[in-house]
Write a structure and sequence with these properties.
The protein is mainly alpha-helical. The chain contains seven helices and no strands. Helices cover 48% and strands 0% of the residues. Helix 1 packs across helix 3 and helix 5 packs across helix 6.
């Protein structure tokens, strides 16, 4: 949730507390504040148990960062140094997997790839996905193959008007005609 979203949510909760103090019922609070009925009832329960303070925000949800602010500064400095400074010399990109491994090596803290991605974004970095190309790739040969061979292998495809539409529900026996084209009228149906 964005900061603006959290601020709005906090404001709405405080408005709800004021309405509860005026003895406005939860359905009316939900209607006035344009929130779900479930939220209004939950807020009303919290308000009854702890007053207006019970509706104040407890901060952003989710797990807290496992690295201290000092470690985050060090991590940012490591990322600025580049991957080669930390043993990845084949290309100069920070992937989320590499950052997770770097965090484990330097700080002895385990991060998942998605957790490393979120942490990188928090620090102002974005993970890079390296292009998977063979070092010996011959671009001219690839282009020539695409133009000559691929056109033959691919085939023409389906013509534009070759689609059809039909009902997916099977017809019942009562809807079927007794005798249709090609049916022999003398042959009994089974």
């Amino acid at each position: 949730m964005t900061v603006a979203g959290r601020v709005r949510r906090e404001s709405v909760r405080m408005q709800a507390a004021e309405l509860f103090e005026q003895e406005v019922k939860p359905p009316e609070v939900a209607r006035r504040l344009r929130v779900s009925l479930k939220s209004a009832y939950q807020w009303h329960q919290l308000w009854r148990e702890g007053g207006g303070g019970a509706l104040s925000s407890r901060g952003p949800s989710g797990s807290r960062c496992r690295l201290s602010p000092r470690c985050l500064e060090k991590l940012a400095a490591y990322l600025e140094q580049g991957p080669a400074a930390h043993g990845w010399v084949e290309d100069q990109v920070w992937t989320a997997a590499r950052v997770a491994m770097l965090i484990g090596r330097k700080f002895h803290v385990s991060y998942s790839v998605s957790g490393a991605t979120r942490l990188m974004h928090r620090l102002g970095f974005s993970p890079q996905v390296p292009a998977r190309r063979v070092a010996e790739r011959d671009e001219q040969a690839v282009t020539a193959w695409k133009e000559a061979t691929w056109a033959e292998v691919k085939g023409p495809g389906r013509p534009a008007g070759a689609t059809s539409a039909s009902r997916t529900k099977q017809a019942s026996p009562a809807d079927r005609p007794e005798a249709g084209p090609g049916d022999d009228a003398d042959t009994p149906r089974s």
